[in-house]
Amino acid sequence: MKLSLALMAIWVLSWELSETTAFTTRPTSNGSSLRRSFPTTHTTSATTTTACYSTIQHDVNNVVLRPTTAESLSTSLATSSTSTTTTAASMKDSQDDDTATTATSSSSSSFEDIFDSFQIGSPIVHRYKSISSVLETTIEEDYDGTNYVMWYHGRSIIQDTETNKEENSNDDVLLPPLSTGRIGRAVSRNGLIFQKDTKGATGEDIAGVALGLNNESWWGFDTAHVGLGSVLLPMTTPAVMTEGGIYLMYYFGGNYEETNISLYSNNPAIPSEAKIKGMTMRIGVAVSQDGETWGRVEGDHPTNACMVPYDKSDPSSAMSDNNEQEFDSKNLVEELYCAWPEVVVQIVDESDTANANKRGRFGLGGGSNNNAANTGDEKSGFFMYYSTMTKDTKTKAIAYAVSEDGFRWFKRGLCIQPETTTTIAATDNDNADNDTPFDDDGCARCNVVRNASYNELEETWSDAPGYTMYYEGVWTKDNKHRILSAQSTDGKIWTKNKNEIVLNIGSSESWDCDGVGSPHILRIDDGSQRMYYVGQKGKSTAVGVAKLELGSTKWVKEQSSFVFAEA
Hints:
Strands 1, 21, 22, 23 and 24 form a 5-stranded antiparallel β-sheet that branches. This protein is globular. Helix 3 crosses helix 5. By secondary structure, it is mainly β. It contains 9 helices and 25 strands. It has a single domain, classed as Glycosyl hydrolase domain, family 43 (Tachylectin-2, Chain A).
């Protein structure tokens, strides 16, 4: 059955609200349908509605990456002949990045084939120095050897509108309206001016792609679209990357399996027979020696996934282990998808080493098999936090799993769920203007960082106890995403910083006025922290940046480029 344009619009607008969530079913206060959006723009630790919106800042140019669009390409060509730019502007993504795709488009059947010509999402940025880059400092006096690399996913215009071309397929059924499609890469020397890799990895079907669709295993979970979760770099220290080490990429994807849209929504307007492809998303892992060309690792599931939604009819999907204290299948809820994996290396404190050896890291069982990450380190392991939707209640939440080696995972259940109006009313008597929490309609994509302290004399960061999670919350009052936070001492049990917005949506008509999300945090040598995030206006998405100065509690937009017109 072919969905009506109106129904598909509801699906599009409600889904990418968090790209990790799915359908939103309630109407807004003015009677219109829910919209999809991402939260993010600046700062705030607001405790009331008034305070929240009063902290929205004046717009600055803080965009660091945009989709490769026909409009930006033509604009950049026209601008290059009529204006003079600073170094930052000359490498501005909407100009040089898109200009660089001119050569790429010539090898494609049309401009719309460029893998990120429609939307982009999930920026994962790493900052490091390598031996080779340090050597370059002897040649370039103004270069300190620091490199930034961003992986992100994007969808082409063609992929967003095409249907499965396989035989006997239902051509009326489309893929989920997400920014997922294929994964690309961009590089920078200052973290603000990124240049896309328009060549991409050898063997991919589209230029500029680092990891594309799985065309080798028709039974795979990732044959229709893929999205980025997290990337782990081989680091000798927190600042220096190991030469010749192994990168790990955790990603997710969907195949052409069809499911009923009504599974993801309580909206009675959706026909029971209406279907969607690629919504049963699963998680996989890929490895690389250079961060540019990736090879998939086969998981235990028949689809080659390493993490799949829990289904009671399939006992293996519980992904249980032999630790009865940590794992109880009764506490697991059935899931509709597993996506947007955030993987964190866990370090057991020295004082807890003896207990860790007895029970095994993460409670995986003690003994001699505690070789996390294949390093022989008796004090480390992995957490995976992933976005899901519960089957029974259609609740968007964040669940977690644990692993000793980063490849075989064991579920532990939900760790972040939406707050209720009742909860806020009982704990926040001063919040009279806002009786609903900012995540009452769902929790989605997150970034988890180990807490750290900064030494101003040595200009170095060092680990501190506990973890901080930055995640997306969906607010029922305007159906938009904002970036919120939570704290944990062990990575398992989380306490939300209730009703405090870390990064708010942009002001009216700004590029991120309809939502912000997909946060990714970097710590800088000067003690500041930088957040990369996805902003949305209508269907347009881009990657922006905000900054938290040392000693401050307020994230603010960071200027990324300047353009000066000739007199």
